[in-house]
Write a structure and sequence with these properties.
- By secondary structure, the protein is an alpha+beta fold.
- 28% of the residues lie in helices and 35% in strands.
- The protein contains four helices and 20 strands.
- It has a 16-stranded mixed sheet that branches. It has a four-stranded antiparallel sheet with strand order 6-5-3-8.
Length: 400
Amino acid sequence: MIRKRTLVAIWLLPAIVILALATSGCKRTAHAPQMGPPEVMVMDVIQKDVPIYGDWIGTLDGLVNARIHAQVSGYLMTQHYQEGSLVHKGDLLFQIDPRPFQAALDKANGQMAEAQANLDMTAINVKRYTPLAKNNAISQQELDNAIQSNMGAQASLESAQAAVQQTELNLGFTKVTSPIDGIAGIAEAQIGDLVGPNTAELTAISTVNPIKAYFPVSEQEYMKAMEKRRTQDSDHAIRRTNNLELILADGNTYPHKGTIVLADRQVNIKTGTILLAGLFPNPDNILRPGQYAHIRFVIQMHPGALLVPQRAVNDMQGNYQVVVVDKNNRSSIRNVQMGERSGALWIVKQGLNSGERVVVEGTQKVREGTIVNPKPYQPDTGKAAVTGTNMSAPGAISTP
């Protein structure tokens, strides 16, 4: 009997286990919490006037760059300026040994004095011979010879005077002075070097306030700019662009705006570009020749543009989509036509209306018709970086 009961228990055990598991599963299913609508970050479509910028890369250069060379040969004795400092026109930069030139000047002065004495002597002879020749006391030939000697002495004096002037100039050239106001560069010659007209430059000086910025624009860009201003004075229209902005190498915008002052006379046949020059105030001499120059300026305005964050736009192989959330918090996927970029935002040319809400974060959680739990999107303004883009590349702009 006991054995039969044991066999019945063994047969009933699997059924009891299965029944217990089924009952436990039913209980867990009955008490499982229901999932709510997915949470997404949304933002209203922005509408505002957007300036469209063109930007180019160039270099800074001095308004005037003076390369200082020795005009006479001699040994460099002293340097009188501090490298990298501001110098003024006429300031002494270098002193070349003046002694050989002083000796040459003394010699020239002596030769000029001798020529002057000779001239005076011949003038006396002419004055004496003239009445004698009239009285036939001497021959006319003697008077003519005296006159010719006087004229030769006059020419010799003028030559001696020119030699004195030349030696004075050479002596003056031993003092190498600055021809302009500007920043003086590092000296290329050292004390004791033999310098001269055929040696390397001694230093260079650049006028940096104001300072020039050279940047090349394509022929197409130049023609577009001139076409827009054709109704104005086309010869000088490009020079009236006085809203040039300079982006420095550290990413900061230079506080002073510049003006386009010239366009080169021809297009570079190798690159198809024309060189423009902008002029920027530089009162503190911060900008220096050779610096990187990122130039930009407004080429047109986009009034009433609709903008959304770039991260709200899904690029589906050239087809752009955004997720729109209506007043009932129901999502819909909408095809849009995008325009130019503006910093972290993107202009929507077609497909959205002002005031509509778009999903910025969480687009992967929603499908067409999904009910969502929208939360306001807070952009990270601390990381927003504004960059300009060449106007020849459609679909890219920058805003201040």
